[in-house]
Design goal:
Blueprint lengths: L1 H31 L6 H4 L6 H12 L10 H9 L10 H6 L1 E7 L5 E8 L2 E8 L8 H12 L5 E5 L7 H4 L7 E5 H14 L7 H17 L6 H10 L3 H35 L6 E5 L1 H9 L7 E4 L12 E7 L3 E9 L4 E2 L8 H10 L12 E5 L10 H4 L4 H22 L3
Parallel strand pairs: 3-4, 4-5
Antiparallel strand pairs: 1-2, 2-3, 6-7, 7-8, 8-9, 9-10, 9-11
Helix pairs in contact: 1-10, 1-11, 4-8, 8-9, 11-12
């Protein structure tokens, strides 16, 4: 039995080594051919929802600078199945209006809004930002006043549904979930293959780069390496069993990395003398659930803020949390439930106190935070972005943590002094 285990360990090591060489060879070939250069990756555009929406809006606009008229809009509506039961003329397409950040009541902004013929199509885009309370509900009610058949389209990396709070009772028929991984990749593929684009090389190249970065970001990238890995894994029972064992521990590996990050942050706070202000830690079980259940479990560390006056010190907390990314900030705090809760008012006394005495509150639509700052924004814990994978290199991990600490230390000096 022991001999068999040693043999399997050797097989796992060999399989990992073989796959590593395949990846390195492919990466070198892609680099030589210029395929590793991607303007979206270089500029980190996909970590910025504003820039993503700006690009999508420009492509969908029949009057956009791409010069292709309504081709991209028509293909988009066909891809998401919107046009099936609607009568849309060529004139409707040509006159369609596509706006970004359409302002509705209470200062809310719809990411993308398409007006075509007598119809209206609102699109909420979520890459890394979290849902807001009643967000989809308010957007739907705005659209349905103009188009009784309106449906809100909820665009995310993986096609997940909006939160219960954002839906606020909306039915499944009133929301359609679409994803960058499927519908957006399919749409871009249709655009690239369109006859109208055959000779329009500059636009076509941008679309190809956009599609490739989406495939990479969402884990849908297929190519020679994927086929070679499949062939390697399926070449023998030992290889398959080795791959199976590796797959079985990946969830635990990712959870352990998340726990390690919180451990490092906690140790840093201890070294700075702030351990006595820790009021609640909830990240070990939450990190496991985050990956095992494939759900947002909001792992966190929470501290009292000694700089806050006695009239407010138990009502707010300094919180470190992972949703898709790692961030920290000031949250409303329930000392009994030991969790952050939705502020009753964004214009209330607590927010005024935070703004006047602790931190300048930037314009924020997040109702769960009085003040929020992202750390190392290109690390996506949910979809395991390229930057996330760098965490498994010890030197890169240390550099990332150093960068994270540089983001928080100045803030800590302000908040954690009595």
């Amino acid at each position: 039995m022991e001999s068999a285990e040693r043999g399997m360990d050797k097989c796992i090591d060999q399989l990992l080594d073989d796959i590593r060489r395949l990846i390195e060879t492919d990466r070198a070939e892609r680099f030589k051919q210029g395929k590793e250069f991607n303007i979206f990756r270089v500029q980190r555009i996909l970590s910025d929802e504003v820039k993503i929406c700006r690009l999508i809006r420009e492509l969908l606009d029949p009057k956009g600078s791409h010069g292709q008229g309504s081709v991209f809009l028509r293909l988009f509506l066909e891809t998401i199945g919107w046009e099936k039961n609607r009568q849309i003329t060529a004139s409707d397409y040509a006159k369609a209006m596509v706006s970004r950040e359409e302002t509705i009541k209470d200062g809310r902004r719809i990411d993308l809004l398409i007006g075509i013929g007598k119809y209206m199509l609102p699109i909420e885009v979520k890459v890394y930002a979290e849902d807001q309370e009643r967000q989809c509900f308010d957007y739907y009610n705005y659209a349905v006043r103009h188009d009784s058949d309106a449906v809100i389209y909820y665009l995310t990396l993986d096609g997940h549904a909006p939160s219960i709070g954002s839906r606020n009772g909306l039915k499944d028929t009133q929301i359609k979930c679409i994803s960058f991984a499927e519908e957006m990749v399919d749409w871009l593929t249709a655009c690239i293959r369109a006859d109208e684009l055959e000779q329009v090389y500059p636009v076509r190249e941008i679309l190809i780069q956009f599609r490739e970065i989406l495939k990479s970001l969402t884990g849908k990238e297929k190519g020679k390496v994927a086929m070679e890995v499949m062939n390697k894994v399926s070449s023998s029972r030992d290889h398959f069993e080795a791959a199976e064992r590796i797959a079985n521990v990946l969830t635990a590996v990712k959870a352990e990395k998340m726990i390690e990050i919180f451990d490092v942050i906690k140790n840093h706070m201890d070294e700075l003398g702030y351990s006595k202000y820790l009021i609640h830690e909830a990240y070990k079980d939450e990190a496991i659930r985050y990956y095992e259940k494939n759900s947002f479990s909001w792992p966190s560390l929470n501290y009292n803020i000694p700089a806050a006056g006695p009239e407010i010190e138990n009502q707010i907390a300094l919180r470190f949390e992972i949703g898709r990314q790692l961030y920290f900030g000031i949250v409303p705090w329930d000392p009994v439930e030991k969790k952050n809760s939705n502020p009753k008012s964004r214009d209330g006394n607590i927010e005024k106190y935070v703004r006047d005495n602790l931190m300048l509150i930037e314009d924020s639509k997040n109702l769960y935070w009085y003040w929020l700052r992202y750390m190392v924004e290109d690390i996506d814990f949910r979809n395991c972005s390229d930057a996330y994978k760098e965490l498994y290199d010890r030197q890169s991990f240390q550099e990332t943590i150093k960068k994270a600490f540089s983001e928080i230390d100045d803030t800590l000096m302000k908040l954690m002094k009595p």
